[in-house]
Design a protein that fits this description.
single chain, NADH Oxidase, binds flavin mononucleotide
Length: 241
Amino acid sequence: MSRNGRIAIIILIVLLGVTFIYLIWPETEETKPREIISIVSLPKAEMNTSVSVEVAIQNRRSIRHYTGDPLALQDVSQLMWAAQGITDPQTKFRTVPSGGHTYPLEVYILAGKGGVTGLNEGVYHYNPFNNTLEQILATDVRSELSQAANGQQWVKEAPVNIIITGNYQKMINKYKDEELSTRFVDMEAGHAGQNIYLEVEARNLATVALGSFNDDLVHQVLNLPENEKTLYIYPVGHAAL
Ligand SMILES: Cc1cc2nc3c(=O)[nH]c(=O)nc-3n(C[C@H](O)[C@H](O)[C@H](O)COP(=O)(O)O)c2cc1C
């Protein structure tokens, strides 16, 4: 074989080797499985409140004191749907816009003991694909979450707390740009949060957006996957007048 032929074969082998390594190299893991204790089906979200979007925007206010009255499971369903529900079964697009329809947000609900009629206390992950709650913790950790949120009392007093987390790696894997991806995920959390505020208003409930907390402590308390970062906590209840 000529010298050129040998060189061509060596180049070909090297190229095949590089391609093989590229194909088997694991992409940075973006989702980690959660340990699910039980699954609760939610009632379908209803579309029939009589409050207009303008009235909900006009009346929206942050409220930090709640009665001990429980929420209904229908309330929980409406709130999960508003935060992250799927509104188009074909495309799987959701209630909240998402850069590149990537959907990096995850929504959890911490139900206090007796906080929701028909739901045991614990922490649940919302699965928008089948409208279920996946229980990941079976204890009422509101006091611990309140401490992780710099002692904010309303976390402990609310019958439930909604937690929004973001999976930045999911966005980075799509855009290969950390700065842009971080901005996109943070912006998207604001959309989900405003939907929670407006749904709360439409259902005559009360909430406040919390951004002041220790992320590591929140993760420990709620047993959250390490590849997610907590972006918001929303205590929700009936307003104490
Ligand atoms: C990003 C962000 C973080 C916030 N963090 C907290 C918080 O940790 N604790 C709290 O009591 N309120 C928090 N708030 C609520 C604001 O205090 C509240 O929106 C503001 O006082 C205006 O009142 P309004 O929401 O009733 O219009 C936060 C609001 C936003 C948008």
